[in-house]
Amino acid sequence: SLDACRYQLENERPIQGQQLVCATPPSDEIR
Length: 31
Known about the structure:
Blueprint: H1 2-11, H2 18-23, H3 27-30
């Protein structure tokens, strides 16, 4: 879970906040 959040943060950069991205991480992108 943490890895996914970090990956998204570095790749997409959430506008609203990290919590939003962590709450709904794209399975398609991570896998």
